[in-house]
Amino acid sequence: MNIKNRQQLLVVLALAAVALYAVNWLVFEPMAHWWRSRETRIAQLRQQVHAGRTLVRREAAIRDQWQRMRANALPNDASLAEQQVLRAFDDWARQSGVNINSIIPQWQNDETNYSTLDCRVEAAGDLETLSRFVYAIENDPMPLQLQSVELAASDEKGQQLTLGLQVSGLALVAK
Description:
four-stranded antiparallel beta sheet, alpha+beta
């Protein structure tokens, strides 16, 4: 093979290598990137479809739960709602044997669809009575949620405890 043919072959091979690199850079890399993003999007869509199907299957249970929440929600009237919550705290205290020191209600109207009644409750008793009190609050169908619980000893032996609760109640605005 002579030198001229060899040079031409090397030039053709170099041009072919540059062309292959350019095709890879301009065609295959963007297609591979597009394919990976497509696979990711398909996985996300499958996950959303699965979540949607789960919601559809649970529709009856979710609607029942929503109806219970609407039925047990606090009245939209502030004084009636406060009276209902205060009466409930008195009942729970009487049932558990807890002494309630103070209840401080405060309304929060941040949303147009609902209001919340936040209550700061201070109670005293021994561990058994305080645990029964908290259990009664948590198991009542009234829409109350314990936001925070503070427990402190009132005496040296820790027999008398003080309980501080931050409780939030839900009042739905009728539409």
